[in-house]
């Protein structure tokens, strides 16, 4: 990876959701724009706050897709990340940074 780029593998959640009012929303229903989570697979040399293995929150509309070895990945800039979820190996505590 070059510069401030991240290669991430998006998490796929195609299951039905349930609203706070109890209504079942099918996976095919088009709703408001939502942010998505992805796992960082590779990071460029100038990435400062995200490490490989972290989960990042990003806007699925602002992305470039690429297929490598039959797996779909997304290419992002570090500045396009809205949040980072990282796991500390020392005590297995998780941190969420927005």
TrEMBL record:
Q: Give the UniProt keywords, A-Z.
A: Chaperone
Q: Where is this region: Disordered?
A: 1-20
Give the compositionally biased regions (Basic and acidic residues). 1-17
Among the Pfam families in the record, one is Cpn10
InterPro entries for this protein: Chaperonin_GroES, Chaperonin_GroES_sf, GroES-like_sf
What SUPFAM superfamilies does the record point to?
GroES-like (SSF50129)
Which family would the database say this protein is a member of?
Belongs to the GroES chaperonin family.
What name does the UniProt record give this protein? Answer: Co-chaperone GroES
């Amino acid at each position: 990876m070059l510069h401030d780029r991240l290669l991430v593998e998006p998490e796929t959640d195609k299951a039905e959701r349930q609203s706070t009012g109890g209504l079942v929303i099918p996976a095919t229903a088009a709703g408001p724009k939502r942010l998505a989570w992805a796992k960082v697979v590779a990071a460029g040399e100038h990435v400062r706050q995200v490490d490989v293995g972290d989960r990042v929150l990003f806007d699925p509309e602002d992305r470039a897709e690429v297929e490598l070895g039959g797996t779909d990945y997304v290419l992002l800039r570090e500045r396009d990340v809205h949040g980072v979820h990282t796991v500390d190996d020392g005590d297995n505590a998780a941190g969420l940074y927005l």
